[in-house]
């Protein structure tokens, strides 16, 4: 089973660690702050109060053996960058680093972070989209241009088949699945009729998805 290490137990790091534990994974958590360690000691598999930048700390914890290490240090940009460099030098295969702004993100990428996440920026985008489009439930950005979206079937499409709605031609998007009463209709056929309370899981270009989301 995959093993995770989270460095930095601020709001982002602690939420991430809690979620991984809830999903059944083992999590090592490291933070310099005693209060943060005490808060998480009963939650994670191991909680260690230490400065990740101090000589030998990461190596003595066997950080190299973890499948994924998340650098969840945000405010202290310098530490976040230095810890990322150290992890890659030690030979950690997958380093995920949290960036507080675009420049921070670029530097993290340059120094070898395998995945850079922008929680505040992404959440802001998500909430804005959700406020504008009444139908959207969740969104995963696959690339800067393409997304996977979970959304309520727009009112005007109810009672119609996928063929009649013709999403592929009209909007250039594909319905991967329909969630109906807790069940999934995977890869629905052209004759599938859309019903009230249907949730659509669709994939497509962001520009086209925007048109579709506001189709009501
Ligand atoms: P958030 O915005 O998610 O709350 P913060 O940047 O406020 O994130 O919190 C980052 C956490 O990382 C803090 O709890 C801090 O003590 C911890 N931290 C910062 N530098 C180090 C370090 N070198 N080693 C271990 N933990 C660190």
Structure description:
The chain has 9 helices and 11 strands. It is an alpha/beta fold and 216 residues long. It has 2 domains: 3-131, NAD(P)-binding Rossmann-like Domain (Rossmann fold), CATH 3.40.50; 135-213, Regulator of K+ conductance, C-terminal domain (Alpha-Beta Plaits). A 6-stranded parallel β-sheet has the order 3-2-1-4-5-6, with helices on both faces. Strands 7-8-11-9-10 form a 5-stranded antiparallel β-sheet. Strand 2 (26-31), helix 2 and strand 3 form a beta-alpha-beta unit. It is elongated, with a radius of gyration of 21 Å. Bound molecules: adenosine-5'-diphosphate. Adenosine-5'-diphosphate binds at residues 7-13, 30-33, 36, 51-53, 72-76, 79, 83.
Task: Give a topology summary.
Elements: E1 3-7, H1 11-22, E2 26-31, H2 34-40, E3 46-49, H3 57-60, E4 68-71, H4 77-90, E5 94-98, H5 102-110, E6 115-117, H6 119-132, E7 136-141, E8 146-152, H7 162-165, H8 167-171, E9 174-180, E10 183-186, E11 199-205, H9 206-213
Parallel strand pairs: 1-2, 1-4, 2-3, 4-5, 5-6
Antiparallel strand pairs: 7-8, 8-11, 9-10, 9-11
Bound molecules: adenosine-5'-diphosphate (ADP).
Could you give me the name of the CATH homologous superfamily of the largest domain? NAD(P)-binding Rossmann-like Domain
* Separation of the first and last Cα atoms: 45 Å
Bound molecules: adenosine-5'-diphosphate
Q: Helix/strand-derived class?
A: alpha/beta
The level 1 CATH classification of the largest domain is Alpha Beta
- Mean pLDDT, rounded to whole units? 93
Number of helices: 9
């Amino acid at each position: 089973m995959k093993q995770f290490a989270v460095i930095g137990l601020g709001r982002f790091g602690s939420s991430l660690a809690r979620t991984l534990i809830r999903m059944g994974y083992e999590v090592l958590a490291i933070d310099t702050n005693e209060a943060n360690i005490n808060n998480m000691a009963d939650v994670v598999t191991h909680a260690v109060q230490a400065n990740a930048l101090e000589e030998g700390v990461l190596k003595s914890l066997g950080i190299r053996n973890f499948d994924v290490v998340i650098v969840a240090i945000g405010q202290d940009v310098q530490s976040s960058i230095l810890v990322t460099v150290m992890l890659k030098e030690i030979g950690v295969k997958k380093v995920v680093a949290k960036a507080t702004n675009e420049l921070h993100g670029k530097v993290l990428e340059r120094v070898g972070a395998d995945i850079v996440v922008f929680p505040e920026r992404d959440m802001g985008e998500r909430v804005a989209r959700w406020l504008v489009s009444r139908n959207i439930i969740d969104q995963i950005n696959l690339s800067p241009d393409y997304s996977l979206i979970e959304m309520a079937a727009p009112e005007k499409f109810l009672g119609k088949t996928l063929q009649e709605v013709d999403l592929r031609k009209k909007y250039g998007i594909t319905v991967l699945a329909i969630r109906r009463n807790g069940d999934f209709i995977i890869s629905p056929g052209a004759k599938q009729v859309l019903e009230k309370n249907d949730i659509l899981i669709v994939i497509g270009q962001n520009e086209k998805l925007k048109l579709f989301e506001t189709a009501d």
